[in-house]
Q: What sequence folds into this?
């Protein structure tokens, strides 16, 4: 038997004599590796979510909304969850924003809460069929996007719950006053998450009539000729219209990126500590084995 083989045999024999110490060392190394892999997976997941959000933003550069209400994100668009007349915008602002130098396209959006087929909390997006897809994106996987007042596109999760398919019809009831409308399903869209698919897109005129909000919009989605002009266009919008806020999507992207980088540094620090602790455990076992 060679010298090296004898040393290896002696090492494994010594590990067997101190089973508890050996198992604790192995457990320490395993925990360290598991922690590193888990933290890296979490970071990777957050990056995927961020990239998905950026894809959903599409071509929107600025979102204009009433300054008296909050601002939340939602798949494909940026919107508030409940539309109330005191927190809406006059539809005339769309033409005004469109006339600002540097603006390529301004598209109106009305968001209303509704119930469909006994399911409450459904979000209905009233959009302009001619301009919406030029400023935002929607992953329509079956059928097509809306093109008329009596048409709608339904989220995959909602269509499954309602057993609705392309060519069928749905009755939408506005939860604020009981107004209702019937629409023909012309498409199914997917967002990747069930709660994001609990929504319906329809023509903004139909949504306004159902909610008795003719002449009002929740937001104006703005696409610029050059995204670098976002700051100046934002200032122009807010100076022209009192009580109106213009949110630059580039700020959201920057803040999200900063948050991801902060989490990366934190996880890297925790992972480094775990590896150092595991290294001490291995070194302790080695030194004790040599001493013995």
A:
């Amino acid at each position: 038997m060679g010298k090296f083989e004898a040393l290896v045999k002696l090492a494994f024999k010594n590990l067997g004599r101190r089973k508890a110490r050996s198992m604790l060392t192995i457990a320490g190394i395993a925990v360290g590796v598991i922690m590193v892999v888990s933290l890296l997976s979490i970071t990777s997941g957050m990056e995927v979510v961020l990239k998905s959000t950026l894809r959903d933003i599409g071509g929107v550069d600025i979102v204009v909304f009433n300054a008296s209400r909050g601002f939340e994100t939602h798949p494909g668009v940026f919107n508030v969850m409940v539309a109330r007349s005191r927190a809406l915008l006059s539809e005339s602002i769309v033409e005004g924003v469109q006339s600002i130098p540097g603006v390529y396209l301004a598209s109106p959006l009305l968001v209303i809460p509704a119930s469909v087929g006994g399911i409450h909390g459904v979000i209905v997006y009233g959009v302009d069929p001619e301009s919406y897809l030029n400023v935002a994106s929607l992953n329509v996987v079956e059928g097509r996007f809306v093109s008329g007042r009596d048409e709608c596109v339904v989220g995959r999760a909602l269509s499954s719950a309602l057993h609705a398919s392309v060519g069928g019809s749905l009755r939408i009831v506005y939860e604020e006053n009981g107004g209702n409308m019937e629409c023909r399903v012309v498409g199914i869209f997917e967002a990747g998450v069930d709660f994001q698919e609990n929504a319906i897109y329809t023509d903004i005129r139909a949504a306004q009539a159902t909610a008795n909000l003719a002449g009002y919009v929740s937001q104006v989605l703005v696409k610029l000729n050059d995204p670098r002009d976002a700051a100046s266009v934002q200032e122009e919008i807010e100076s022209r219209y009192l009580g109106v806020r213009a949110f630059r999507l580039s700020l959201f992207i920057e803040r999200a990126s900063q948050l991801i980088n902060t989490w990366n540094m934190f996880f890297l620090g925790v992972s480094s500590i775990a590896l150092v602790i595991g290294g001490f455990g291995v070194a302790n076992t080695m030194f004790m084995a040599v001493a013995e």
Observations:
- The chain is about 45% helix and 25% strand.
- The longest strand covers residues 103-116.
- Confidence is low (pLDDT under 50) at residues 71-85.
- The two ends are 22 Å apart (CA to CA).
